[in-house]
DNA sequence: TTGTGTGAAACGATTCACAGCT
DNA sequence: AGCTGTGAATCGTTTCACACAA
């Protein structure tokens, strides 16, 4: 801390809040749709509805970009489309490479909306020699050996990793060494990268687990609601013994058994599926 | 809407913060890896590093689950794996349907890690009659007509939408009517769903746009650093000299020059690629 | 002595509510 | 009369820093 500015120096310096940046693409999509229907202006209320946020948030977001609206009227659709595109850097185009052409990589390569905006798939790269030369989405797959050359010749700064988890870290290192500074990672691993490199993660299994959590809670509440006064229906999360997992049990599992002294190794082991749980997904990570 | 308990009743009642929930799967993955290497205990410091977060955050997160650690020692790996799995609802299994078996849907169906945890693909559904019966990932694709039957017979509560954007809203409505209460949406649209239904979105194009934003900023900073005080170093084609936009522009006195009159239609039109920008991706949404 | 668990401070994002422009 | 733009209030998350248990 005391050491001057620590990692990620002044990156956040002049700035649009991260949460706002993450919503700009959403607004842009809604605006593009309006633009296609030749709608000339929108109110914050309408646009917010189309983007699935509330209008106060949208107005605040736009206020970070400048004053692009007209009081009493709304926003000029075309003008906003342009301003947001520019702010996001979509007025220039970004060559992108996809590394790992398995099921997912191929799906990504075929994704239309990819090239629709400023993005252009510059190359498809895979480690399997058998893939080399094979056309995927009308483009020949190239071998990993040429990764560095491809990156530099095409001026690629954004890489998409769709390899198995085990290969991801190494691939990211090669990409970065070759000049890539932004990575979209579909492999289920935490990538460690140097400062100045941005990584965004897309992880199917994490998303499902989050849904499962809420789903389970719904079931618990339902049961609690239906099942009258149960000891710890909504109990305090008190540090004490079992209370803290009321919702968990849901359908009939005995809550008592669930909690045990932090020494119950046996139960814990039993709980894990004995199956081929491998951390590395077959070929399609996400 | 405001009838009695407003939307999302007491869902958040006794609660683990959402941000914490979103990190539990990350911890779980790191712990599973340790477990496989038969590591008996970890400190918050080590585990945090493996999960890519800082240790204070991790300890705070775990504190919401209960006191599962041992002071002076650390956390018992197996025990924590079990507790987190249980908290996330992964000790039961969740039948899932995937709707839209295009490139992406097929990739998802083939995803190994899917079934690895509590999730099981109960059915693959597609609207194309030509797909019906065809095996994907060792499973016959079924026709949309049978969607309701499939959902109820299998007790499915989680649905994955991998259809083109145009079909997503309708598919979500049918899923929900049939009993699904959690949706993972890969189609690039905002789904509107009733209260009590959870939706999570995975959107490739949004992720790329966020990266592009940061990428552009990096380029700008670099140029600014290298090339003295150049007005529009960041290649903004527009007159928007908005370089220093002072966070908040707080002190009134808007840098008027930065913004041209909200009437510049021409520029806006020019900015949009004339190409086939269609909002609906070919077959693979994400 | 070590490393967890947690109040309290700091920070960031969202929402409120209204002044001010059109 | 209407709708944006934005200070101020609120809420949620992260970080700090240290008491306390092993």
From TrEMBL, chains A, B:
Comp. bias regions, Low complexity: 223-242, 252-273
Compartments, as annotated in UniProt: Cytoplasm
UniProt keywords, alphabetically: Cytoplasm, DNA-binding, NAD, Repressor, Transcription, Transcription regulation
Region (Disordered), start-end ranges: 223-286
SMART domains assigned: CoA_binding (SM00881)
Entries under Gene3D superfamilies matching the protein: NAD(P)-binding Rossmann-like Domain (3.40.50.720), Winged helix-like DNA-binding domain superfamily/Winged helix DNA-binding domain (1.10.10.10)
Protein name: Redox-sensing transcriptional repressor Rex
Protein species of origin: Streptomyces goshikiensis
